[in-house]
Amino acid sequence: MKQCSCCKQYKDETNFYKRLTGKNGLYCSCKDCNKKRAMEWKKNNPEKVKHQCKKAYTKKVSTPEGRKKHNDTCKKWIQNNLKKHKQIVKKGNDKRLSTHEGKKKDRERATKWVKNNRERFNEYMKNYHRKKTGYTGPITKICILCGKEYSTPQYHQKYCGKKCRTKIENRNKQKGSRKELKWIPVYENPFHPTEKIHEHHIDNNHIVVLPADIHLCYAGCHTRNDNDDLDYIIKQIYPTFERSEFRT
Question: Are 144 and 194 members of one domain?
């Protein structure tokens, strides 16, 4: 048993830190009193604490072995303290993004990382879209305009790139403003008013009326065989129709 010099209580020798120069090879104050004194010193001297921590960190990470040990300990701590880690990251992000300069730096850092890690970024975006949309089908698809194979995680995407997308956007704009463009019907509507019909574009100016079911079957088909089949159906409905009269 030994008496503490701070709290004046008699405690077991295991409650004292070892010290070679001290009496009986132990500190004069107990562990609890030492901890309290250290916490008070840290509160009163934050700059000195930062300086000491920086020194210790640079010394530890100066060698590759020390860097590896430090990374391993950090990973273990994160696995055991996920909630605390999330809170710390959130606090840091909020503090950084609270200012305009912080947002600018964060944007620059993100663009730099994407340029250096393009493959990882693409994989992350694929998995993100798959989770968001719930798409579990094949990644490879065939573009309905150019017929090329392309990979996409989005189940609703039907076009491979920017060129095909702009073509479709322009076509949709034209469809929205048919009255202004003055589409010319080649033949009169031979169907009953109750029947559902669609307008099929033979070229940029001329239109032919077809049944909605038939038109939906061939909508978006741009291969030669499909176009020939559709021309054959149009010829059955309109016997005087000839493809050579219209430019494609």
Answer: no
